[in-house]
Design brief:
Layout (H helix, E strand, L loop, with lengths): L1 H24 E7 L4 E3 L9 E9 L3 E7 L2 E2 L12 E3 L11 E3 L8 E9 L7 E11 L7 H78 L5 H6 L4
Parallel strand pairs: 1-9
Antiparallel strand pairs: 2-7, 3-4, 3-8, 4-5, 6-7, 8-9
Length: about 240
């Protein structure tokens, strides 16, 4: 019973260790359609290699195969031909990275980099795992299409912006005209009110002058009664 428990513990520990190593070496890369993507893989401890393989899973396909210093297209899947190259053609300092050109949605998947030196027996050693996710750039198959769409969008946007600006300028002009008309109207009303006030003041002034003149005439044209004049005549 103790032996069984010990063996189970060792198996569990081994599985966990393999899982940790796998997760540690796994990388996530996101790209857009039409991009050139570098799948990185570096391990300086491998030494001089005899075989380098890049393989994609789900589905299982050979992406890149390098044997005895030369690339082997015979072992490469048709969809990846003429689309991959070594980042370092001499594979110096354990740099096994490759460049995948003009990626598309079908390139999404999990890639593994495996190598074997001349002292190792098959199969090749797993160095790293890359998960590539390709998203749609929204402009067709490649960058040229993206640029065309972008230019067209900018052109249309320019027209739209120009039209909107023209409409805004026209609205602002109309608004300014309305404000101007309102100002003129207000000026006319003020002028009429001022004239009415002037006329009223002029009438009041004339009325006051007439009253004063009448009072002055009465005062200067006053004569005593005839009986009072007779009483003052000498007898």
């Amino acid at each position: 019973m103790a032996f069984s428990v010990s063996g189970t513990s060792a198996a569990v520990f081994t599985c966990l260790w393999i899982f940790v190593l796998t997760v540690k070496g796994q990388q996530q890369i996101t790209a857009k359609t039409g991009d050139n993507v570098t799948l990185p893989c570096v391990n300086k401890s491998v030494g001089d290699i005899e075989l380098l393989e890049w393989r994609r899973w789900d589905p299982e396909e050979n992406v890149f195969v390098w044997k005895h210093g030369n690339m082997s297209q015979d072992d490469q899947h048709e969809s990846f031909k003429n689309r991959l190259e070594l980042k370092d053609s001499q594979i110096k300092d354990g740099n096994f990275s490759v460049i995948l050109k003009n990626v598309n949605m079908k390139d999404t998947g999990t890639y593994e980099c495996r190598v074997r030196n001349d002292k190792q027996p098959p199969p090749p050693q797993l160095i790293c795992t890359i998960t590539l996710t390709v998203t749609d750039s929204g402009g067709g198959a490649g960058r040229t299409g993206d640029g065309g769409d972008k230019d067209g969008g900018d052109k249309d946007g320019g027209k739209k912006d120009g039209g909107d600006k023209h409409v805004r300028d026209k609205e602002e002009g109309n608004k300014g005209g309305q404000n101007k008309n309102g100002g003129n109207k207000g000026g006319h009303v003020g002028l009429i009110v001022g004239l009415l006030i002037t006329v009223v003041l002029l009438i009041v002034g004339i009325f006051i002058i007439l009253i004063k003149c009448k009072w002055h005439l009465r005062k200067t044209s006053y004569f005593p009664p005839l009986d009072e004049e007779a009483d003052h005549e000498p007898s």
